[in-house]
Amino acid sequence: MSTHFDAEGNVHMVDVSAKGVTPRVAVASGDVTMDAKTAESIRSGETRKGDVLAVARLAAIQATKVTSQLIPLCHGIPVEGAAVTFQWLPQAEESEKAVVRCQVTVRTTARTGVEMEAMTAASVACLTIYDMAKSLDRAIVIGPIQLREKSGGKSGHFLRDPPAAS
């Protein structure tokens, strides 16, 4: 039986009231691939719309707070911390493309996790970059959006890319 359907097959929100309150952390990322000239405009702050990454950071933080309004069966939980970073990924010198990775870390102390908040935030940050740079580059590609790590709760720790053994 699915956790999101009752015995009669009706959709319902999972009851988490019996779960323990524990510290929970989720890290998600999203990549935005664009023309190298577009990336240079973003890096130098020379876009008509201003500081693209600063606006995308604010959009990500805001998205963590409204996730339960966007995802139908997602619980509304208190977001106690949200950190957003951007990193330009290395590309071959002759590449005409550039990739910026947005990484979002969300923290709470609750009965359920913050994976959806982190992934929603990464998605919204990437969409904001597209929105602010689309006049420069309509061929921008977003993705993948993915959970990189989560901890807390009954299911324990998940790490997408474990460090290499030394």
How is this fold's topology laid out?
Layout: E1 22-35, H1 36-44, H2 52-70, E2 81-89, E3 97-110, H3 115-133, E4 141-151, E5 158-159
Antiparallel strand pairs: 1-3, 1-4, 2-3, 4-5
Describe this structure in words.
This protein is an alpha+beta fold and 166 residues long. The chain has one domain: 2-Layer Sandwich (Alpha-Beta Plaits), CATH 3.30.70.640. Helix content is 28%, strand content 30%. A five-stranded antiparallel β-sheet has the order 2-3-1-4-5. Strand 2 and strand 3 form a beta hairpin. Helix 2 crosses helix 3. It is elongated. The mean pLDDT is 91.
What attributes characterize this protein structure?
single chain, 166 residues, alpha+beta, Alpha-Beta Plaits, five-stranded antiparallel sheet, 5 strands, 28% helix
Please outline what is shown here.
Helix content is 28%, strand content 30%.
